Amino acid sequence: MRISIAILFSFCLLSCGNNALHVNGSYYAILPGETIELYTTTNSCCYYCVPNQDSLKSVRFVDRKVVEEAPDDCDGCSSTDAWTFKGIKVGIDTIILKKVGGGKQCSDPAYETERYVVIVTDK
């Protein structure tokens, strides 16, 4: 009985998606022209945005794409997005990813805020 429960529990953990593949660092060092991807996971309750996108000087937001999609028949399941930023000139920027509730504006109070330092260097 205990073995059956352990196997079932392990199967459930493995079937929930492999978020270990999508781990963000706290800082990145890149060259101009190189890109980084930052990952966010959320469900239909909320979304992420970049409130300081217009003030970034050394990096530029390039694209956001779904890298792990929630099943169609699963309300409330999470999906994972990759946010791609490209180094454009030498300098340091802090990218802010802000999690806000559905129907809210990016300028509204956040559920959660994540910060990532990007150093664009020529060496």
Nutshell version of this structure?
With 123 residues, the chain is mainly β. The protein is 11% helix and 45% strand.
Count structural domains: 1
Largest sheet: 4 strands, mixed
Derived structural class: mainly beta
Q: What's the CATH C level?
A: Mainly Beta
Strand content: 35-45%
The spatial strand order of the largest sheet comes to 1-7-6-3
How far apart, in Å, are the first and last alpha carbons? 59 Å
Q: What value does the Rg take, in angstroms?
A: 18 Å
Low-confidence stretches: 4-18
Return the CATH architecture.
Answer: Sandwich
- Fraction of residues in H or I helices: 10-25%
In terms of topology, how is this protein built?
Layout: H1 2-15, E1 27-30, E2 35-42, E3 46-49, E4 59-68, E5 79-87, E6 91-101, E7 112-120
Parallel strand pairs: 1-7
Antiparallel strand pairs: 2-5, 3-6, 4-5, 6-7
Q: Would you kindly provide a written description of the structure presented here, covering whatever features stand out?
A:
The protein contains one helix and seven strands; from the N terminus they run αβββββββ. The strands form two sheets. It has a four-stranded mixed beta sheet, with no helix packed on it. A three-stranded antiparallel beta sheet has the order 2-5-4, with no helix packed on it. The protein has one domain (19-120): Sandwich (Immunoglobulin-like), CATH 2.60.40. It has 123 residues and is mostly beta strands. The model is unreliable at 4-18 (pLDDT under 50). It is globular.
